[in-house]
Amino acid sequence: MNILLLGSGGREAAIAWKLSQSPRTVKLYIAPGNGGTGRFGENVPGLSPLDFDAVRDFVEKQAIDLLIVGNEDPLVAGIVDYFRAAGSNLPIVGPETAGAALEGSKDFAKRFMERHGIPTARYRSFTADTLTDGYAFLETLTPPYVLKADGLAAGKGVLIIDNLEEARKALAEMLGGMFGKSSATVVIEEFLSGIECSVFVLTDGHGNYRILPVAKDYKRIGEGDTGLNTGGMGAVSPVVFADDEFMKKVEERIVRPTVDGLIADGIDYRGFIFLGLINVGGEPMVIEYNVRMGDPETEVVMLRLDSDLVDLAEAAARGDLSGVEARIDPRAAVTVMAVSGGYPESYPKGKEITGELDPVDSILFHAGTKIDADGRLVTSGGRVIAVSSYGRDVADALARSYASLQGLKFDGMYFRRDIGRDLLALENK
Ligand code: AMP
Ligand code: GLY
């Protein structure tokens, strides 16, 4: 079959790698793709995922049989609704806007969880009109205070503040437009303390779902989880505390009520649900929903998914996953992100990437790379290459990624040397 994958990050590189292994993939296009995805299929650099007319044109001309939407922006902007309104029944992996609101509006997501009894932090939402109620609600909480812009804010819309006076000030600033329209509504919630993990579910809109390997990502730029938040500096799978007992709770209290809740609310959700969870003393609670796979979690989830992704994706998009398994590879997988110096603040682009780009022990999923006019591979983003490896266990896989990183070079290259270390410490307890 002919497949079109939308996106250009490490996540899409990993999805493309996995799709390219299927005997069912005849032709794979990645739009726009990056400097590494061309190994797994054909890049379509001129096609923007947000230009729905152009995407539909491409789908028709190239006789695309399956569309997979990698990132959230086209979903929240309504790409699925657009195809349906045009009378197309093209199988698409990704929800309509009604479902994409689980990521596009934190207030919607919180109301969804409340309605369906899904464990999450206590919260209330406020607008400029209810600012004084917001101040009063802050008084009822103990610090730190968690303030979230309702809408998409490129991962920057969550503030965690230790002191009440600053939290009041931040609330006023957010409602005053700190994140533009995204913070016209602000969710204030109780702070939860625990270790986070990411659970990925593929669902078909008809109550069937498959749970993919659990991963943990490392969001801060600095070692020991310090410094600014990033898109993600690395990931590992499996996650030691996400054992059978924990996952049974996740499935019963969170996955099933989410899938059933979507149906009860009349939302036809065919695609990936990303559950950002926190383990609060052994009890899983939801921090956030995303309506796509995680990045860099996908770079380890795809390594550990033993089943054919085309079978799974097509079945979900067609609305019937019942006959398709998601087998998990027993090996561990990790990824360590090589990033541009300066990231997540400003950083240079166009730095040539040299060294061993096809190491025996690792798979390099490109993120912010491109081939320049002279045919050189250069950096084009903050997160540059996700160095991903299998191993007997997490420690073994980490050793392989770190060895492969020694062979990779670009000006200003930085990576965290402590990916997975917190989980290894738990294992050794
Ligand atoms: P979100 O965009 O909702 O995932 O929030 C970004 C990050 O803020 C999360 O990954 C958590 O590390 C942190 N966070 C969000 N909500 C809470 C909460 N209620 N308690 C503790 N930490 C939180
Ligand atoms: N790694 C977190 C995310 O993709 O949102």
Give the class from helix and strand content and strand pairing: alpha+beta
Which term fits the overall shape? globular
Report the biggest beta sheet as strand number plus sense, adding barrel if it closes: 5 strands, parallel
Which hetero compounds are present in the coordinates? adenosine monophosphate, glycine
Mean pLDDT: 96
Rg over alpha carbons:
21 Å
Amount of helix: 25-40%
Low-confidence stretches: none
| Amino-to-carboxy terminus distance | 48 Å
What kind of assembly state do the chains in view correspond to?
A: single chain
Number of strands: 24
Describe the structure.
The chain has 429 residues and is an alpha+beta fold. Helix content is 31%, strand content 27%. It has 13 helices and 24 strands. It has a 5-stranded parallel sheet with strand order 3-2-1-4-5. A 5-stranded antiparallel sheet has the order 12-15-18-23-20. A hairpin with a 3-residue loop joins strand 13 and strand 14 (226-229). Helix 1 packs parallel to helix 10 and helix 5 packs across helix 6. Bound molecules: adenosine monophosphate and glycine. Glycine binds at residues 217, 232, 290, 294-295, 297.
